[in-house]
Write a structure and sequence with these properties.
Blueprint lengths: L1 H7 L21 H37 L5 H8 L3 H11 L5 E2 L5 E2 L2 H15 L4 H6 L2 H9 L4 H17 L3 H32 L12 H17 L9 E7 L6 H12 L3 E9 L1 H11 L3 E5 L7 H9 L7 E5 L13 E4 L4 H6 L1
Parallel strand pairs: 3-4, 3-5, 5-6, 6-7
Antiparallel strand pairs: 1-2
Helix pairs in contact: 3-9, 5-7, 5-8, 8-9, 9-10, 10-11
Length: 352
Amino acid sequence: MRKAFLHFLPLVEMDEPGIMPFWTVSCNNSLLYVVRRITQTWFTCWFFLKIRWKNKFVGKLVKDLFMKLFSIADVANFSSVKAHTLRVWENRFTVIKPYRSLGNVRNYTLEEVDYLLKLTLLNKAGIKISRLAAMGNSAIEKAVLSLVHEEDKQCLEINKLIISMYSMDIEEFDQVLDNCQQAWGIDRTIKEIIIPFLEKTELFSCKHCDSVIDFAVTSIRKKLIFGIEKVIPSTKKGISVLLFLTEGDHFDLLLLYFNYLIKSNGIKVMYMGTNISLEKVRSVVQIKQPDYLITCISQKRNTKVREMKDFLHQWPSKLMMLVAGFKEEQIKEQIKNFRFIHYRDLSASLLS
């Protein structure tokens, strides 16, 4: 098509006889050749988009390339409503008509995600989706603001965090966290607001490495550190834990939460930080002799497991390493004193 169109370019006569358009001139001059090729490419693109695919293709292409869109799986995670249910709402009640990509895949704008989060919140509060579909936007807003149950209010604050993070509204994000801390205290804010938010957005696993989330991660780190400092130290259980992230790992939200959780359970915590080599860990173990080593390994860094296995062979059997944020079934061989845990099971693993 492109080659055929280039031969189709007309030879337009100029004002002076015998002078042809610049794209038909013999290209001995390199600059003239570059200009000619750019012009030909531009005409080709214009012809292809305008004549063959028309405006619908251009609109979809622009949305796919430049707009922040969310898949139905993202909306399901944010709302804790199954994707099948969202499809039923769309087809049966027409609560929303999502944008379809060039591959006919459902995609949602941030405004549509915000609207669906409000619908799911009200639906969980007891309002049928058939009734919600007949309500206008103003009525839905009033219904959301009239929620009285504490659990519904907490879900509303989590939804606000999601929307303000992806809209990069830093002030709103910080204000929501401050309001939650004022209403429920730092401990409940961490357990009932921040942790569910991190789960819904999958920030614990650092699945989406996007500059949009940087300011949100910074704000959450501040709250976690404040919660850690607020906990009164206690060593009644006689257990000590060494926390660290291996070399190359810098995303420490889960590790900070472990620090807060372990310290809250009256266990002595030694926090080394991120990007720590095993040689440095070895030197600290020799001096402090902790009972547990706890770290997080991403799926992209499963080669670290063998290094840790060799590391553990040099120490007495009482030293136990716990690893979170990794799929246990990916490790074929069993390693002595080496266990994979879900972060929710950390307290039970330490106190068992």
